[in-house]
TrEMBL record:
InterPro entries cross-referenced by the UniProt entry: Acyl_CoA_acyltransferase, GNAT_dom
PROSITE patterns: GNAT
Keyword Lyase part of the UniProt annotation: no
Domain (N-acetyltransferase): residue spans on this chain: 3-170
Protein name, entry field: N-acetyltransferase
Length: 187
């Protein structure tokens, strides 16, 4: 299958919303959060977020990345344990690939493109909260294989979204109890 890669743009928002909520659960993303993530992708006229399109122009994957200067560590972060100053760490919000193209290198290509953009923005590392309940724990395996190192495990990482945004985790019955692995990938 022929895949092309492009910087995230507003014309991709509706397809990101559909694919993101299909994979991660209803209300994981909404149009406001996508717009906010898009705005925070930029630094020095460089966009760190990328999408993958099939030969028909259909979105089959995306990597949402906040530039190092466009986000701040929260209670789910342990910057005192990071080997890089927090001001030089970008944030990998999510990497999502359509089931039809999984295992074909789309996710790792999106990550490489985001890393290259983040490096041009001045980042030395990227942080992600890896969903430990992904099918076959593929998210952890993928991010580890790319060089990500576990900093800390955060039980109930996305539970607050159930209250705040009516998030419906695709693996939990009511409230999300999934663990997020805080992982750092040095460039």
């Amino acid at each position: 299958m022929s895949i092309s890669y492009h910087e995230l743009a507003p014309e991709h928002f509706s397809e990101i919303l559909a694919l993101g909520n299909l994979v991660h659960g209803d209300n994981y993303l909404d149009i406001n959060s996508i717009n906010n993530l898009y705005e925070r992708s930029w630094q020095d006229n460089i966009n760190a977020s990328w999408v993958a399109l099939n030969k028909d122009g259909k979105l089959v994957g995306f990597r949402l990345t906040n530039a190092a200067s466009q986000w701040h560590p929260d209670k789910w972060c342990s910057p005192d344990k990071w080997p890089v100053d927090a001001s030089r760490v970008c944030y990998f919000k999510c990497n999502t690939v359509d089931e039809s193209v999984r295992g074909q290198g789309v996710g790792s290509t999106l990550l490489r493109k985001s890393i290259a953009s983040a490096q041009m923005q001045g980042a030395l590392a990227g942080l992600a909260h890896i969903w430990m309940a992904s099918p076959n724990n593929s998210a952890y395996g993928y991010f580890s294989a790319c060089g990500g190192v576990v900093i800390k495990m955060h039980p109930n990482k996305w539970q607050h979204l159930c209250f705040e945004d009516n998030y419906a985790c695709p693996v939990c019955d009511d409230l999300c109890t999934c663990t997020g692995a805080e992982m750092l990938l040095a460039f």
